[in-house]
């Protein structure tokens, strides 16, 4: 029995040593582990949990990038991770040049879902949504924001669906550092019978039930296929898609767009409002751009903000949105990728980086977007850097040897796993930002906390509380 115990202990010890002493540890620079067993897991997860209070966003990743370079090794529990920010390496990893040499964990399931939904997010399809965006945004201005501007009282915007709101807020609660370690480092951890995870699963079930009820109501009240293209919303199009055969499929897709779609766009909008609240000059320039667009229209048919051509003439407004997405990456990292076989990744300096099978590839866009080797004055809010033929654009291009920012700026990822709704999101944000700024002023209250909070879905302002007032041009004289 003693011999067996000693042998078992030796096997465990050797296994731990094998995982801890990985060949990448000697091959690549990186931070020293803060714990022999956990590696850097406590360091990274504590930092993420305290972005909202004491830790600067997106530390420690930005410091690691600046100190160790474009390929950094670190370990979280038994996950041996390489943080890549080298543009040529990312071109390989993100399936642009080498196809499916490295695949992400969602695999065939992701590909099948994407194939079904792709037709709904082409440029031609998104054009049809712009009018819907404008109608809903105008309605929001005329009701919710107008009431906030005139009543000067706190408004409850979700009293109609308290159960759904409670479930959604449950999903947005910031996880503890230990939960973050499990969620990012332990396969299948989200299914463990822990109270916080049970509450999250229950919240998802509540949302699924609410969505299912909405679908049943829509099917019972009107046939979605009877709507013409100008009046079909996204749910109409999903329900009439021949490859989406069940209501369960529709619920799954709506849940996906609530988290990966709606939450992303709403978080980006929140950060835009934060930046605009501190920058009256930027607000004035957006208003002038919108005024120039709308003043040439006779409005006999529709507002130019309801047309694809109209919103895409708002070059400065688009640059403000892009710069906000650079400074405040709502997804601080892309979906991790795992090497399915030994691979060699090319780097920009001409060398090759060997990656053993099972290596986790992490792309920290939040750190890349603040990399001083890619962006001049990276922490400054400079929308002009996204406008061609400006000195700011030229300065950034010079840093990158005139190369595009395709692999250093990736708010929607890039390649075969890029965000399927990126056109949808940008069009929606253009309509909302232009319409909101045209009609209202937004100011932070004393209770606002605009540090970065990771809520297990996106990175949002920790507590965004604002006052709303009518913009000068919208006040009746």
TrEMBL record:
The keyword Transcription does not apply. Gene3D superfamilies: Cytochrome P450. Heme binds at residue 419. GO terms for molecular function: heme binding; iron ion binding; monooxygenase activity; oxidoreductase activity, acting on paired donors, with incorporation or reduction of molecular oxygen. Its cofactor is heme. It comes from the Eukaryota. Keywords: Heme, Iron, Metal-binding, Monooxygenase, Oxidoreductase. Belongs to the cytochrome P450 family. This is Cytochrome P450. It comes from Aphanomyces astaci.
